[in-house]
Design brief:
Layout lengths: L2 E4 L10 H11 L5 H17 L4 H9 L7 H16 L5 H12 L3 E9 H10 L4 E10 L2 E7 L6 H13 L9 E4 L5 H4 L4 E5 L3 H9 L3 E3 L3
Parallel strand pairs: 1-2, 1-5, 2-3, 5-6, 6-7
Antiparallel strand pairs: 3-4
Length: 218
Amino acid sequence: MALAIFDLDNTLIAGDSDDLWGEFMAANGLVETETFREGNNRFYEQYKQGVMDIREYLDFSLQPLTQLTLDELEAWHGRFMEQQIAPILLKKGREQIEIHRQQGDHIMIITATNRFVTAPIAKEFEVDTLLAIDLEIQDNRYTGKVIGTPTYQQGKVTRLQEWLNEHPEHTMAGCYFYSDSKNDLPLLKRVDNPVAIDPDPDLEKFATANGWQITSFR
């Protein structure tokens, strides 16, 4: 039994859930639309370039979550799933998960998007484990603070190792990791079976130079 690890955004879904959630909040008046959209777009461009400061981004993106109760956010997220996420769940991604499931592999999503946004999406894919950016909760609200190391770039390696330390029945032997992004190179370089899925230009160049598998879920 091996670990089969999947990135989420632009890998298993045809879009970025964090960016889409920001647009959803703006479209529904949950944030000051023009100012938030400008910031949301700026950070997304930085992410694609691999230069985003994750702490700065989290300070920006998590603040709106503090304005609503968990129950209110859950209701909004249900609409978000129906309107924005359901149409972009990738069939080929689901099929690849099922191949690993039939092989008895442990299926994991590691994402740089927070758990509030991604947990319902991971549930749709029926994965065994989700590692995401974990958020502090007090008095039935998110505080805007992060618990532990953010699962971004090298942070994905750190969080995976912490999980392995807590689950010694699993190892990195024979591990697969599927991702679209150069931001995931730290973990892609660590696994036995790195797979570039619809990769960005920098990841495609690196994967080609190193003989990694390159494929598409779209």
